[in-house]
Amino acid sequence: MSIEYSDVIRVGAELIHPDTGKWFLVTDARVPVVVFVHGFTAHGRYLSRLAEFVAAHGFAAALFNYDSYRGIDQAARDLEMLLGELDEVIREDGIFLVGHSMGGLVARHFVQYGAERSGIRVRGIATLGTPHSGALSKRHVGHLLDWADSVTLPNPFNRSPVCPSSMQLTDASATGLVGKLNQDAAADARCLPLLSISGGLPFLEFGRGSNGGFAGMLRNLVLQRLIGERPNDGLVAESSADIAKVVRVRPRQTHLRDYPGYERINHSYLGRNQHIAGIVVRWLKETLSETVRPAQ
User: Fold this and answer.
1) I want to staple 178 with a disulfide (CB 3.0 to 4.6 A). Which of 26, 34, 134, 137 is the partner?
2) What burial class does residue 147 get, using C-beta atoms within 10 Å of its C-beta: 0-12 exposed, 13-18 middle, 19+ buried?
3) What is the value of pTM for the model shown?
4) Which residues have a Cβ under 8 Å from the Cβ of 9 and sit 6 or more positions away?
5) Which option is the CATH number for 8-135+177-200+236-290: 3.40.50.1820, 3.40.50.2000, 3.90.1280.10, 3.40.190.10?
6) How far apart are CA 142 and CA 140, in angstroms?
7) How many CB atoms sit inside 10 A of residue 227's CB?
8) Which pLDDT value is given to residue 218?
């Protein structure tokens, strides 16, 4: 079956079912809901394989598709709006959030500032290759945009190193969004279960023609110099992907990098690796059993 995906620039943010590409409905949520949040420059379908795998293990998967150029805070507000329209029972039973790259920051921002306001109970967050301390520089983000054009369709409207998301990822925005998020999270008395997973292959593919060629090697050499730290996943340094190194270690906060194949997984494939998908499923099940619904 051919699935039609909307252009979020024209139709706005949406929650979609990974199997059909249609809007996620209350009737789809007969089991615990897991919302998947894609990263900067990507599309909801980027995490569809992971979402389908999780759904096969007894969860209801929803892909959050949003315009990732408009800012982490704007994406979090869009997520809050869509989740706030879910049935009251679903809000009380709670949801999980799984974010890849910038998507993890969107998930954290929503939980930190919007979840209680909207009455959404979040049971836990899993992040894959998320730059919890932000990216390094505008030049770094420029390479990210080049990489994104090679794995997704170019965005002709907001593709700029000075778009809101770029400024926030480099912590160059007027509000210092990432720094404030981490500061507020460190002072938060809540102990929300949080899993962060990183990759260890310091290499990114820039289109089919340059994967193994000189151009690809040169781009990766420049990226490595900009990152200036190993290990990294080709885009995000380990020290940034590890939530425990960014926000003080808390109960129910876990980081994983010691899984088989860590050194062979880069930023692009963290959400497309079956072993990592299995780790996420086990964490979801364990967290689900620990976070029972509050007594009425």
Assistant:
1) 134
2) buried
3) 0.91
4) 67, 155, 157, 158
5) 3.40.50.1820
6) 5
7) 21
8) 80
